[in-house]
Specification:
By secondary structure, the chain is an alpha+beta fold. 20% of the residues lie in helices and 35% in strands.
Amino acid sequence: MKIEHVAMYVNDLEAARQFFRKYLNAESNDGYYNIKTGFRSYFLTFDSGARLEIMNKPQMEDLEKSLTRTGYIHIAFSLGSKEKVDELTAQLKTDGFTVVSGPRTTGDGYYESCFVGIEGNQIELTV
C-alpha cells in the first residue's frame, strides 16, 4: 500500500502552484474546474512520483495555522544532500520566507530545516 496523494486547500491556487513548481520542482497538470461548485484543483507531481493536490473553492474557512496545532503539521521534501537543503533554505530566506529551524541535525539524526511556506503552511526540507 502507498499514499496516493495528499491534498491541501489554498486561497491563491495559482500562487501555490507557482511556489511548488519554483522551489520544489513540481510538475503540474492543466488543472480541474467544476463550473457547478466553483471547485478548482491542480495535481502536482514531484521527482519521486509523490503527488500533492492543491485545491480551492468558494467560501473556504481559513483558520490560524499555529505550528503546534494538532493534525497534519508539515510536508517534508527530501532533497538528496545537505548542500541542497542549505542552498534551498538560504534561497527561501532571501525570498522572504520565515525559517523556523535549521538547517541542523536533529536529535534523531535527520539533517533538516523547516520554514513557513505558502499561506502559512510549514514545510520541512531534509536529505
